[in-house]
């Protein structure tokens, strides 16, 4: 299958605590799947997109778990590479109140060993959109080089590039992250930064100022994700904030990735940019109503049902 959407990055098996407390206090964990671009891929597929994934996995049970998951989700895995000398990354989530704490086991993971020569140029050139993230660039120098080479292949083929900063301070120094992320923004078409991360990278605070800064780097479209306040769409012809949908949130893990995946799937399906914003906000909202980055991600029908329900409530208000 030649996908319309291709994502590249590091998947990580997730162990989510079933009770509050520090990692040493928790006795039971729910096993799931994580990794920002893998989450994105699942969200895009469930929202109706044709998706393929590029990564290196360890030749282990964790890696096999991801292959089974992606195939079940209809994601093409034909170009995924198994590395017999490395492992598939994992992380643990512990919680205290509304605060989440992450413990990662990813140093020298199979995905961090990605190099540019692993990239299938024909596969990327045949897609309509390549999705990348700052995490994929931060896990190693070779992975960073691989992402830039994938962008070059995509741009040469006339393929759109979408980019989520997903800035993680523990992975790399601020100055290096800022330089690489902003250079990538200059090469991307669609940007999906969160407000908190963008504030740190730009030293700006107002969403409108941040959006103007990033538009000035060259992308066609900038979407600032505002969490419970929705999202700001910025294009050359103006800015507009789209409110979040009202739900009872349980876990916000993966909501930003779900937003990205739904937006891209809707955009390539021909939805207007305005409808894509509502569509993505609905997908992100529904993702917060369950635990983990994958299980609560909604399908196309659930997203549209929430949109229709909210529209009905607005008409009756």
Can you walk me through this structure?
With 317 residues, the protein is an alpha/beta fold. The chain has a single domain (5-316), classed as 3-Layer(aba) Sandwich (UDP-N-acetylmuramoyl-L-alanine:D-glutamate ligase). It has eleven helices and 14 strands. It has helices at residues 36-46, 61-72, 121-125, 134-138, 141-156, 174-187, 195-202, 207-215, 255-268, 273-287, 300-316; strands spanning 5-8, 12-17, 29-34, 51-54, 56-58, 81-83, 89-96, 99-105, 129-133, 160-164, 190-191, 221-225, 231-235, 238-242. The strands form three sheets. The chain has an eight-stranded mixed beta sheet, sandwiched between helices. Helix 9 (255-268) runs antiparallel to helix 10 (273-287) and helix 10 packs across helix 11. The model has no long low-confidence stretch (mean pLDDT 94).
What is the straight-line distance between the termini? 46 Å
Q: At the fourth CATH level, what is the homologous superfamily?
A: Ribokinase
| Extended strand count | 14
- CATH-assigned fold name: UDP-N-acetylmuramoyl-L-alanine:D-glutamate ligase
Quickly count the domains: 1
Radius of gyration: 18 Å
Category from helices, strands and their pairing: alpha/beta
Helix amount: 25-40%
Low-confidence stretches: none
Shape: globular
Q: Give the ordered list of helices and strands.
A: EEEHEEHEEEHEHHEHEHHEEEHHH
- Strand order across the largest sheet: 4-1-9-10-11-12-13-14
- The total count of helices amounts to 11
**CATH 2nd-level architecture:** 3-Layer(aba) Sandwich
Proportion of residues in extended strands: 15-25%
Note the main sheet. Answer: 8 strands, mixed
Mean pLDDT: 94
